[in-house]
Automatic annotation (TrEMBL):
GO molecular function, one term: glycosyltransferase activity
Residues in Glycosyl transferase family domain copies: 226-387
UniProt subunit comment: Homodimer.
Family: Belongs to the glycosyltransferase group 1 family. Glycosyltransferase 4 subfamily.
Keyword Transferase: yes
Species: Natronosalvus rutilus
Protein name: Glycosyltransferase
EC number: 2.4.-.-
Length: 414
C-alpha cells in the first residue's frame, strides 16, 4: 500500500462556485464528525475517475477538520487482469470466474490489508478491487465502520460475479452507489445514493488564459481548432465504445464539411485492457487524417480540447457515472451521450445536449449534425450545461452528501 501525493486544497478556495449556505452546511456536517479518522482505499492513483475524486476530496476533508487518509493498493498485472474481469462481469460480461482468479484476488487483497497498521473509525472501500481486504481489516479494526463505494454500472451484472462480490459487500455496514437504479443489485444492510462530481479547481477544469490555450492547441497539431471538431474523452475501454463514436462521426461527416474527430483517453493504472483497446482504435482510424487518436494528454491539454470542441460525445455502452460529461458541460460544450448509467443525470435532453440509446449510431450522427449546423443552439446548450453542473455536480455538493452518509452510519453503529 502507498499514499499518493495530494494538492493544496481548502474549502475557501471554492468560494466562487458555492454559496454561503452550502459552505455552512459543509462546516456543520464536519463538526458532526469530531475526532473521526477516515480511510479511503482504492486500486490506483492515476488514470481513473475514482483517483481524481479522492485527490481533491481528501485534502478538503482535512481542511474541514475531518482527519482523512488515502491509500492505494500495490498489485501485480495478474491481479488487475482478475479485477478488470470482475469489473466487466459486474457490468454484464459473462466470461467465467475461475477458482484460480479467486485465489489470486484473495492473496493480493489480504497481503495489502496486512500493510495497514493505523486504526480508523470509518473505512471507505472503493469499487471491487480492495473488497477482499475486508476480512483482515475487520480483525485489525473490529470497531471500525465499513462503507463500500461502488462507482460502476451494476444494472445488469453477471450472477456469478455478483455473487462473488456480494460475499464481501454483505459484510459492510453501508454501501454508496452513484445512481438509484444500482441499489437493487447491492447486497448490503443499507445503501445511499451519492452522485459524483468534478473539481472545478483542477488543471482539467479550471479557467485557462488565452496564451496557454494557444500553446496547447499548437501541441495538438495537426488537429485544427479552425474546423468543426467532435471529441470523446474516455479511457480506452470496451464499454466506452470508441468504435461506435467513430462510425457516428463518419456518418455525420457526410453532412458537415471538414469535420474532425478526436478520441482522447488515458491509461488507468489498474486497467490492463487499455493498451489493447487503444491499439485497436488507432488501427481503425489510421487511414483517416480527420481522426486523431490521442492518449495520456496532460490535464491542461484535455481542458483545452474539451473547451475547443464544438460537441463532445460520450457513447458508452455501460457507464457508472461518466464525469467527463460534466467536465464538458462545465466548459459550455454540449454533449451527445448514451442513455445509460449516470449520463442522463447530467445531460438534459434538448437543453444542454441529447441522449440516445447506446446502440443508436445513427441517432448520435443526427444529433451531431443538428448541433454542428446551429451555432446559436450550441451556445444556448453550453450555457445551460454550465449552470446544470454548477447546481448539481461540483465537489462541495458531493462532499456534503458524503458527510451526511458518514454521520448517519456512525450514529447508527454507535
Amino acid at each position: 500500500m502507498h499514499s499518493p501525493s495530494l494538492p493544496n486544497r481548502s474549502i475557501e478556495m471554492y468560494g466562487s462556485v458555492i454559496d454561503s449556505d452550502q459552505l455552512e452546511r459543509l462546516r456543520s456536517l464536519a463538526e458532526s464528525l469530531p475526532d473521526v479518522r477516515v480511510l479511503h482505499v482504492n486500486s490506483t492513483a492515476t488514470g481513473g475517475g475514482v483517483a481524481e475524486l479522492l485527490r481533491s476530496i481528501v485534502p478538503v476533508c482535512d481542511d474541514l477538520g475531518v482527519q482523512t487518509d488515502w491509500v492505494v493498493m500495490d498489485a501485480t498485472d495478474e491481479f488487475f487482469e482478475v479485477t478488470k474481469a470482475i469489473h466487466n462481469g459486474l457490468q454484464g460480461d459473462r466470461s467465467p470466474l475461475t477458482e484460480s482468479m479467486k485465489s489470486t484476488y484473495r492473496a493480493v487483497t489480504e497481503r495489502n490489508a496486512a500493510e495497514i497498521e493505523d486504526v480508523y473509525d470509518l473505512v471507505v472501500i472503493h469499487d471491487p478491487q480492495p473488497l477482499g481486504m475486508l476480512e483482515r481489516l475487520e480483525e485489525t479494526m473490529p470497531n471500525a465502520t465499513y462503507v463500500w463505494r461502488c462507482h460502476i454500472d451494476i444494472t445488469d451484472p453477471s450472477e456469478e460475479y455478483l455473487a462473488f462480490v456480494s460475499g464481501y459487500t454483505s459484510r459492510v455496514d453501508h454501501a454508496i452507489v452513484s445512481r438509484s437504479a444500482y441499489e437493487a443489485n447491492v447486497e448490503a444492510p443499507k445503501t445511499s445514493v451519492v452522485h459524483p462530481s468534478i473539481d472545478p479547481l483542477t488543471k482539467k477544469n479550471r479557467s485557462i488564459d488565452e496564451e496557454t490555450i494557444e500553446t496547447e492547441r499548437d501541441r495538438m497539431d495537426p488537429l485544427s481548432f479552425d474546423a468543426p471538431l467532435v471529441t470523446q474523452v474516455s479511457r480506452f475501454d470496451p464499454w466506452k465504445d470508441q468504435f461506435g463514436t467513430l462510425e457516428a462521426f463518419h456518418r455525420a461527416r457526410e453532412h458537415v464539411t471538414g469535420l474532425q474527430l478526436a478520441l482522447a483517453g488515458g491509461m488507468a493504472g489498474d486497467d490492463p485492457e487499455g493498451l489493447e483497446i487503444y491499439e485497436q482504435v488507432a488501427e481503425a482510424a489510421a487511414d483517416d487524417p480527420d481522426v486523431h487518436v490521442l492518449t495520456d494528454l496532460p490535464d491542461t491539454r484535455v481542458n483545452v480540447l474539451q473547451r475547443g470542441s464544438d460537441v463532445v460525445v460520450q457513447k458508452s455502452l455501460r457507464e457508472g457515472f461518466g464525469l467527463v460529461v460534466s467536465e464538458a458541460l462545465w466548459k459550455r460544450t454540449p454533449v451527445v451521450g448514451s442513455n445509460v448509467g449516470g449520463i442522463p443525470l447530467q445531460v438534459e435532453h434538448g437543453q444542454n445536449g441529447y441522449l440516445v440509446e447506446p446502440d443508436d449510431v445513427q441517432g448520435v450522427a443526427d444529433h451531431l449534425v443538428t448541433l454542428l449546423e446551429d451555432e446559436d443552439r450550441r451556445t444556448a446548450f453550453g450555457s445551460n450545461g454550465r449552470a446544470h453542473v454548477r447546481d448539481h455536480f461540483l465537489l462541495p455538493r458531493q462532499l456534503a452528501d458524503l458527510f451526511g452518509v458518514f454521520v448517519t452510519v456512525l450514529e447508527r453503529d454507535s
